[in-house]
UniProtKB/TrEMBL annotation:
EC numbers, comma separated: 5.1.3.15
Superkingdom of origin: Eukaryota
A Pfam family it matches: Aldose_epim
GO MF, one example: glucose-6-phosphate 1-epimerase activity
One Gene Ontology term, aspect cellular component: cytoplasm
An example Gene Ontology biological process: carbohydrate metabolic process
Organism for this UniProt entry: Kingdonia uniflora
The entry's keywords: Isomerase
UniProt binding sites for substrate: 72, 90, 95
The name this protein goes by in its record: glucose-6-phosphate 1-epimerase
Keyword match Isomerase: yes
Protein family according to the UniProt entry: Belongs to the glucose-6-phosphate 1-epimerase family.
Substrates-to-products reaction catalysed: alpha-D-glucose 6-phosphate = beta-D-glucose 6-phosphate
Length: 317
């Protein structure tokens, strides 16, 4: 168990513990009682709770908590691909690897240092990884929890290879909802999307907001940096801010597909929605020595939602 110093600082708000499989997990806390739990298996955020102890991420009741498979829920990291590929497992290998804690992370910007707790994780390819995806990289993931309870994630991928490579990426975010038929997403109206249920055919969104009455599996392209997920019954809105991630994936399996997934309850589609900040339509390409950065911040506010400008302080996460 970690030790908490009497004087509050970012690193004192971090505790490392073992899960039931013996894998390290990092717990971040704020002075007000909000918390985030991150597993070194996949660098996956497993839990995010507000200062009232309420869980703000969805996890399936049938989730399998045993490597090498990722847990169904939370926020898995999809890298270096999203979806299915020829040589790699679905959504890439990053979510199935054991990450390491960076003991010498770069400091927070002074404007972010008040009450924020964070952890930096590192992933580098193994010899086996290089057989299937022959590109040397360094992936640094910072997960932070603001004093206001906001969850932020920043990914930095550096090419330390002798030649350029390309990848796609997503923060595969599972949100809990009271009733999927009562939820709407604002900020994606009028955008083009690729429909994965129609061989990735391109369509234009016609609705005033995204609502749900059947299976949805779409990639909205060239999306704004702020979108909102409104839950009428809970009177709660998730505000998702992103940077370096032009696309948004929206997914709900609905009833038929739910019954085909061993690690997902038959009726759980009613209580979840995936809304992913992503880079999918156009791959990220890095030349040797180049670095890409993708940022995500999620906050929860009482409904109703008012659009606000993107917070420039995100660059300091």
């Amino acid at each position: 168990m970690g030790h908490f110093a009497a004087v509050w600082d970012q690193r004192a708000a971090m505790e490392v513990m073992k899960d039931w499989n013996g894998t390290d997990q990092v717990v971040l806390r704020t002075p007000r009682g909000a918390s985030v739990r991150v597993s070194l298996h996949g660098g996956q955020v497993m839990s995010w709770r507000n200062d009232k102890g309420e869980e703000l991420l969805f996890t399936s009741s049938k989730a399998i908590f045993k490597p090498p498979k990722p847990m169904r829920g939370g926020i898995p990291i999809c890298f270096p691909q999203f979806g299915k590929g020829e040589s790699l497992e679905q959504h890439g290998f990053a979510r199935n690897k054991i990450w390491k804690i960076d003991e010498n992370p770069p400091p927070l910007h002074p404007s972010d240092s008040n009450g924020k707790s964070f952890v930096d994780l590192l992933l580098k390819p193994s010899e086996d990884d290089l057989k299937f995806w022959p590109h040397s990289f360094e992936f640094c993931l910072r997960v932070s929890l603001g004093i206001n309870g906001n969850l932020a994630m920043i990914s930095r991928v550096r090419n330390i290879n002798g030649r350029q490579f390309s990848f796609s990426f997503a923060y595969h975010t599972y949100l809990p909802v009271s009733d999927i038929s009562e939820v709407r997403i604002e900020g994606l109206e009028t955008l083009d999307y690729l429909d994965n249920l129609c061989q990735k055919e391109r369509f234009t969104e016609q609705g005033d907001a995204i609502t749900f009455e059947c299976e949805v599996d779409r990639v909205y392209v060239s999306s704004p940096n702020t979108i909102a997920v409104l839950d009428h019954e809970k009177k709660r809105t998730y505000v998702i801010k992103k940077e370096g991630l032009p696309d948004v994936v929206v997914w709900n399996p609905w009833e038929k597909k739910s019954r085909t997934m061993a690690d997902f309850g038959d009726e759980e589609y009613k209580q979840m929605l995936c809304v992913d900040a992503a880079a999918i339509e156009k791959s990220i390409t890095l030349k040797p020595g180049e670095e890409w950065t993708g940022r995500l911040e999620i906050s929860v506010v009482p409904s109703s939602y008012c659009s606000e400008p993107f917070d420039s302080d995100l660059r300091y996460l």
